[in-house]
Write a structure and sequence with these properties.
single chain; alpha+beta; three-stranded antiparallel beta sheet; 8 helices; 42% helix; 19% strand
């Protein structure tokens, strides 16, 4: 599920004391193209919200929308929060890495196998596949340097072979003071909807890269250390 930003709502209709979306401009979960959805009036209602679906004008695939009519109201207390069902937008890492460039195919296969045996509660198989995933990650970055070395030593030298600062430093060119994006952020030129969507993706990635991932690794590391100490 992805929350629809109010800025993506083109028009509303009244529903009691609330305004619910009628037309929404958003990325289709099917074809991944931004288009305008006209929500059908055949809502399935409950005490907490409504569900409706409509077809993408481009690919004709159905998209499902969930509209919260209770506890899902914006700061003005008028517009109901709206969500779109998007399976591909799941935060599960396996769905993210498959769409990224330069991801080793053997890493994807090993990781998917690890997920499958974990979900089947095959603990020994999960241990084997987890080790294979770690080995595949390190081999990708270290190459021949990973041979005959224990995983602990490979992890110690990993920062010497991976430019961890590159993703952040590359933004300096993107946000150069004489660049188009900088002028848009300063409201010197107008920003279109596609660019605002990309900016929101960038913000999410920055927060995840700088705060979420380091925090999750630290928390998990502490839990594992506590379990075996």
């Amino acid at each position: 599920m992805r929350r629809i930003n109010p800025g993506s709502v083109i028009s509303y209709i009244k529903y009691g004391n609330l305004k619910i979306p009628k037309n929404i401009q958003y990325e289709c979960p099917g074809c991944r193209k931004t288009t305008e959805f006209m929500l059908n009036a055949n809502y399935q209602s409950s005490k907490n919200g409504m569900v409706t679906e409509c077809s993408c004008p481009l690919c004709k695939k159905s998209a499902v929308f969930v509209i919260m009519t209770k506890e899902g109201i914006d700061e003005q207390g008028e517009n109901a929060d709206t969500f779109i069902y998007d399976l591909q937008a799941s935060k599960h890492p396996v769905n993210q890495i498959e769409s990224l460039p330069n991801i080793p195919k053997d890493l994807i296969r090993a990781y998917r196998s690890a997920i499958n045996v974990y979900e089947a509660r095959e603990n020994s198989a999960t241990a084997v596949m987890s080790k294979r995933v770690i080995e595949s990650i390190l081999k990708h970055f270290l190459g021949d340097k990973s041979k005959a070395q224990p995983l602990s030593q490979q992890l110690e030298i990993l920062p010497n072979h991976v430019d961890l600062a590159k993703p952040i430093q590359s933004l300096s060119h993107l946000l150069a003071t004489d660049g188009s994006l900088h002028r848009m952020l300063e409201l010197e030129t107008e920003m279109d909807y596609e660019t605002t969507s990309l900016i929101m993706d960038l913000l999410e990635s920055l927060i995840e890269y700088l705060f979420v991932l380091p925090g999750k690794i630290e928390v998990t590391n502490n839990k594992i250390a506590k379990k075996f100490n």
